[in-house]
Specification:
The complex is a heterodimer.
Chain A lengths: L3 E2 L4 E5 L4 E7 L6 E7 L6 E7 L4 E4 L2 E6 L4 E6 L8 E8 L11 E2 L3 E6 L1
Chain B lengths: L3 E4 L2 E4 L5 E7 L5 E7 L5 E9 L2 E4 L6 E3 L9 E3 L8 E8 L11 E2 L3 E5 L1
Parallel strand pairs in B: 2-11
Antiparallel strand pairs in B: 1-3, 3-8, 4-5, 4-9, 5-6, 7-8, 9-10, 9-11
Classes of the chains: A mainly beta, B mainly beta.
Chain lengths: 116, 116
């Protein structure tokens, strides 16, 4: 049973427009959320994160929104650029039972294509 | 500063063979992780380590073993390769504090393993 769901396998956007990538989660214990970006033949790279005490976090062209009541988060990229074309993974984490490391659960990813 | 280095990048194994996937990081990170990514799927945690001498199972540990004799190295061992272990394997590390203020993994570029 997927605890982190990215229901859109792919998204196609025109350069300069907004890209919105969505993510839903089921575990109410998740309190920290991350987005990773992955190019082919490379490892994922950390993009942006948000704690459950916030509903928005912005970093340049990237903004993550969190709606805890809906268990939904989204990543907005404005304006989209061809170099943003990659697979984007949503991840959510909760403190482990031992109170130690946050270990993320990853979604299946959404492939974003930004057309020039 | 090389980050997280994985070797080899590609490998083809025959059923029943064994091999070790190497992972080393030069960032003095305490926490290290092994993930596998199957086609169209998210990353699934195999094993992780919170420091030298300490390892723990993740979501999909069967068929794998790990060791952590130094802070820098976290090798993943496959003893009897099976076709179900065909996947891309990613090693990751992070500073690792109880609170996720350090958030974000640093991933290696992956090892693509095919078992035939």
């Amino acid at each position: 049973d997927q605890q982190v769901k990215q229901n859109s396998p792919s998204l196609s956007v025109q350069e300069g427009r907004i890209s919105i990538l969505n993510c839903d989660y089921t575990n109410s214990m998740f309190d920290y959320f991350l987005w990773y970006k992955k190019y082919p033949a490379e490892g994922p790279t950390f993009l942006i994160s948000i704690s459950s005490i916030k509903d928005k976090n912005e970093d340049g062209r990237f903004t993550v929104f969190l709606n805890k009541s809906a268990k939904h988060l989204s990543l907005h990229i404005v304006p989209s650029q061809p170099g943003d074309s990659a697979v984007y993974f949503c991840a959510a984490s909760a403190r482990t039972a031992s109170g130690g490391s946050y270990i993320p659960t990853f979604g299946r990813g959404t492939s974003l294509i930004v057309h020039p | 500063n090389a980050g997280v280095t994985q070797t080899p990048k590609f490998r083809i194994l025959k059923i029943g063979q064994s091999m070790t996937l190497q992972c080393t990081q030069d960032m003095n990170h305490n926490y290290m992780y092994w993930y596998r990514q199957d086609p169209g799927m998210g990353l699934k945690l195999i094993y992780y380590s919170v420091g030298a001498g300490i390892t723990d199972k993740g979501e999909v540990p069967n068929g794998y073993n790990v060791s952590r004799s130094t802070t820098e190295d976290f090798p993943l061992r496959l003893e009897l390769a099976a076709p179900s272990q065909t996947s891309v394997y990613f090693c990751a590390s992070r500073i690792g504090q109880a609170l996720p203020i350090d958030y974000g993994y640093t991933f290696g570029s992956g090892t693509r393993l095919t078992v035939v």
